[in-house]
Prior knowledge:
The structure is a single chain. By secondary structure, the chain is an alpha/beta fold. The chain has 2 domains: 2-118, Rossmann fold, CATH 3.40.50; 129-213, Alpha-Beta Plaits, CATH 3.30.70.1450. Helix content is 31%, strand content 27%. The protein has 7 helices and 11 strands. It has helices at residues 10-21, 33-36, 55-60, 76-89, 102-110, 118-131, 206-213; strands at residues 2-6, 25-30, 46-49, 68-71, 94-99, 114-117, 136-141, 146-152, 171-178, 181-183, 196-201. The longest helix has 14 residues, at 76-89. The protein starts with a strand and ends in a 6-residue tail after the last helix. The mean pLDDT is 83.
Amino acid sequence: MKVIVMGCGRVGGQVSLLLTDQGHDVTVIDHDSNAVSRLGPDFKGKVVHGIGFDRSVLLEANVETAEAFVAASSSDNANIIAARIARNIFHVPRVVARLYDPLRAEIYQRLGLFTISTTNWGAERIFEVVTHTDLDVAYTFGRGEVSMVVIEAPLQLAGRTVQHLSVVGEIVVVSITRDGQAFIPVLGSEFHEGDRIYLAVLPTAMERLEQMMGLERRS
Length: 219
């Protein structure tokens, strides 16, 4: 996949390296040559120096053939402008904008621009870690509306079925890893002690999940 990443700060740089490591064709745009140095000498992608929402810079980065555009600079305004140009003018299929301001992120999300608010995401992750110390939140979806929780099945769960940990619309057992092998369970699948269980959970259902597993919430 051909991806353009605007901004080579900590987030943009990390995203660029992750994408190239997976074999994607990545072009990084940044006006600061020092920032681009964080990619290291072995970076396999292309680097374009300039302002990420400048038309000539975008054309040099081959935005016309890009399949994804990531706006991850340190400026919310620059990210919004660049993302909208990529989506509305050059019709890039997948566009993501990283915004610090959660209110603006929500507004532009409603207008159809996919946004990620690192402020909201970070606050929600801290809240989950502090208040649900027995549950490992591995990933969040959307703006944090759904969490992927990973747990190791305790002894008291052995012999119980997936249905025991399922609540329609709130808690879903997505996968179980047992003896190094992962599988998608059905409601009648039994848990074994030591199973690694992956669940999709609403934040409002975290406490309920803890109760169902016999865990105690930390106050």
